[in-house]
Design a protein that fits this description.
This protein is an alpha+beta fold. It folds into 3 domains: 37 residues, Ubiquitin Ligase Nedd4, Chain: W; 126 residues, Nucleoside Triphosphate Pyrophosphohydrolase (Alpha-Beta Complex), CATH 3.90.79.10; 146 residues, Orthogonal Bundle (Globin-like). Helices cover 47% and strands 23% of the residues. The protein contains 10 helices and 10 strands. The strands form 2 sheets. Strands 4, 5, 6, 7, 8, 9 and 10 form a 7-stranded mixed beta sheet that branches. A 3-stranded antiparallel beta sheet has the order 1-2-3, with no helix packed on it.
C-alpha cells in the first residue's frame, strides 16, 4: 500500500488537507505550501518477432511471479523514449529502437498510486536475450499462447497492437499460401482478401449493372451495344463469382482456364473482335475498383501494402482470364 505523506519535507511540520481549485491536497500551514500528487510515468515496450511477444516474469512486488511487458519508471533527466529503451535493456538484455508510441493509459496502483503507462513499439537493434536482475525470466511468447498479464494497461496496449497488425499478418498468410488449392479455414477466415471478396459478393449486382451500362455504350466495346443483356449479365455474374473465390483462396485454375477458353471460342464464333472482348473484360475490373473506392471499402480496410497485395491478386486473375480468353479465340476450328 502506498504510504501517505504526514510531515512537510521542508520544515517537518504536520501536513493537513486543504482544498485548492476544488481539489483536496496536502498542505503545510507553516510553509504555506501545497504538495501535488501527479501520476508517475511508466514506460513499456512491445517487441515482436515472428508473431511472438517479448515478456518478462516479475521477480519482485507488485505481482511477483506474473508476466508483463518490459516496463519500469522513467527517471528524472531522461527522455521518455530513453527510459523505455533503458528498461528494455535492463530487463531483457536487448538493445532496442523506438518505432512508435502505441498507447497511453491511466492505471491506479496500490503500491505507487496513480500511474501513467506509455507503451512503445520497438524493434531489436542489438543485444542478447537475458533476464535482468529484477526479472525471473525473459522470453518470447507466441500470440496464441500469451499468459495473463500483471497490468491491465499492458493488456490494453497489446490488444491494440495485435489489432493493428491483423491485416498485415493476413496479407503474408495470403502470400505464403497463394499456390495452395485451398486455404485452411483459419487463414481463409482471417485473410484480408477474403473480406474484400465478401465486398464483391455483397455488391455484385451493382458492379454488374455499372459494367453493363458501360460495356453497352463504351466506344471500345461497340459489338456489345446491341448484345443480349441477359447473357452479358450471366457472364458478369460468373466472372465476379470466380474472382471472389480466387480472392478468398478457394480457387481452381482449371475452372478459370476452361471458362475463359470457352468464352474466347464463343466470341470468335459470334465474330466479335478480340480487342472488344478483352476491353469488356477490363471494364469489369474498372468497376470493381470504382465501386470499392466510392464505398471506401479499400481506403478504410487497407493500408498501402495491403492495397498492393489486393491489386497483385486481381492482376493475376485477370491476366489468366485474358490469356485463356485469347487462347480460346485463337484456336483453329
Amino acid at each position: 500500500m502506498k504510504k501517505q505523506r504526514k510531515h512537510c519535507l521542508y520544515c517537518g511540520k504536520v501536513i493537513i488537507k486543504k482544498y485548492e481549485d476544488g481539489v483536496q491536497r496536502d498542505y503545510c500551514g507553516a510553509c504555506q505550501t501545497f504538495f501535488y500528487e501527479n501520476p508517475l510515468p511508466v514506460v513499456s515496450c512491445i517487441l515482436e518477432s515472428s508473431r511472438q511477444i517479448l515478456l518478462v516474469k516479475r521477480d519482485r512486488p507488485p505481482s511477483k511471479g506474473a508476466w508483463c511487458l518490459p516496463s519500469g519508471f522513467a527517471e528524472a533527466g531522461e527522455s521518455i523514449e530513453g527510459a523505455a529503451l533503458r528498461e528494455l535493456k535492463e530487463e531483457t538484455g536487448i538493445k532496442g529502437k523506438i518505432v512508435r508510441l502505441l498507447d497511453v493509459d491511466s492505471y491506479k496502483s496500490r503500491f505507487y498510486g496513480d500511474l501513467l503507462f506509455l507503451t512503445f513499439v520497438v524493434e531489436q537493434a542489438g543485444g542478447k536475450l537475458a533476464a535482468g536482475d529484477d526479472c525471473a525470466e525473459a522470453k518470447f511468447w507466441p500470440l496464441t499462447k500469451l499468459p495473463p498479464l500483471a497490468f491491465s494497461s499492458n493488456k490494453k496496449a497489446l490488444d491494440a497492437y495485435i489489432k493493428s497488425r491483423k491485416d498485415y499478418w493476413a496479407i503474408f498468410d495470403s502470400i505464403e499460401h497463394a499456390d495452395e488449392k485451398k486455404l485452411t479455414p483459419k487463414i481463409a477466415k482471417n485473410s484480408l482478401t477474403r473480406r474484400l471478396a465478401n465486398f464483391i459478393v455483397n455488391n455484385k449486382e451493382e458492379i454488374i449493372n455499372q459494367w453493363l451500362a458501360d460495356a453497352t455504350t463504351n466506344p471500345s466495346t461497340t459489338e456489345y451495344h446491341n448484345y443480349d443483356r441477359q447473357i452479358l449479365q450471366k457472364i458478369g455474374d460468373k466472372i465476379l463469382s470466380q474472382l471472389s473465390l480466387w480472392l478468398g483462396g478457394l480457387y481452381d485454375v482449371n475452372r478459370i482456364r476452361n471458362f475463359y477458353t470457352k468464352l474466347g471460342r464463343e466470341r470468335k464464333k459470334s465474330e466479335f473482335k478480340i480487342s472488344e472482348a478483352l476491353s469488356a473484360l477490363s471494364l469489369i475490373r474498372k468497376h470493381i475498383w470504382k465501386l470499392g473506392l466510392a464505398h471506401d471499402a479499400f481506403a478504410k480496410r487497407t493500408e498501402l501494402y495491403m492495397t498492393f497485395e489486393l491489386q497483385r491478386r486481381m492482376t493475376i486473375f485477370f491476366d489468366l482470364a485474358t490469356f485463356y480468353l485469347t487462347r480460346g479465340y485463337e484456336e483453329k476450328k
